[in-house]
Amino acid sequence: MQLVDNETFFKQLSALFESSAKSGSIWLTHKRLTREDGDVHMSSEDGSAEFPCLVRATDGKDVKFSTVVQPLELEQFHATYGSVLKSSMSATLRKRDKKREKQRAEEAARKKRRLQEEIAIEGPKRGSGRRKRQRKIKAALKLEEAKKRAQEREEAKARTKAS
């Protein structure tokens, strides 16, 4: 792990984002830095102490570097860090497919409307039109099963929200 100053950290972080723009992952970690004499236990009387922050970046393979941010420099560091992350991730993140989301919502609404409709079973029991009547009976049974499943899902959702 290579310990660098803040400016070098930002330069290397930008280069790391560029190198993994097509494929790959980057892990960023923040950690409070402790004293050399062991772990610091947080207590109510020691609330005035401020500790430096250790920020690490790695691609999981070869590139590993970190920086130590002092408490007085933390706000400026986070402002620069945020701008580097925004500029690097805006190009690599996929945009939402609003058209597909709209189609799915319309399809769900259509299914819900179909569940509300009743199928009128009409026609002769024998003779011409018998097959048409049989198809309508089968569709009505299928609709009833779908209504039962939808009602069970709604009840399950209500139970999970209640608990």
Topology:
Elements: E1 2-3, H1 6-19, E2 27-32, E3 53-58, E4 64-69, H2 74-92, H3 98-116, H4 130-162
Parallel strand pairs: 1-4
Antiparallel strand pairs: 2-3, 3-4
Helix pairs in contact: 1-2
Which features does this protein show?
163 residues, four-stranded mixed β-sheet
Roughly how many Å apart are the termini?
46 Å
Briefly note the structural class of the backbone: alpha+beta
User: What is the mean predicted local confidence, pLDDT?
Assistant: 85
DSSP strand tally: 4
Which percent range describes the beta-strand content? Answer: 5-15%
- Approximate helicity band: 40-55%
Can you give a write-up of this model?
By secondary structure, this protein is α+β, with helices and mostly antiparallel strands. A four-stranded mixed β-sheet has the order 1-4-3-2, with helices on one face. Helix 1 runs parallel beside helix 2. The longest helix is centred in the last third of the chain and has 33 residues. The protein is elongated.
